Amino acid sequence: QVQLVESGGGLVQAGGSLRLSCAASGLTFRSYTMGWFRQAPGKEREFVATITWARRTYSADSVKGRFTISRDNAKSTVYLQIDSLKPEDTAVYYCAADLQNSGSPLAARYDVWGQGTQVTVSS
Hints:
mainly beta; 0% helix; four-stranded antiparallel beta sheet; seven-stranded mixed beta sheet; globular
């Protein structure tokens, strides 16, 4: 059974940083594309960033230059480094596995999801 467990969220002041982690189990982690999404209250889930099995990365325009996705295949973990946080970054952040390696930013293309971790940015 594939499982994804996020951690690292919390309450932080604007301008601060966080590093989110997502530990995967039950799959050959190095073979799959992993992504991060977020969902703010009252809004749809939106794409944040993805990293392919070949370590190619893609980010949403809204987070470029502030968010960095990376992976450690030895630890079966994907990370999201978030810098220069803004109040509008407040959301639940989810990691997901794209088992078809589509490389798509569409949430529907991701097969397995974590439970999410809350990030709250105060102004």
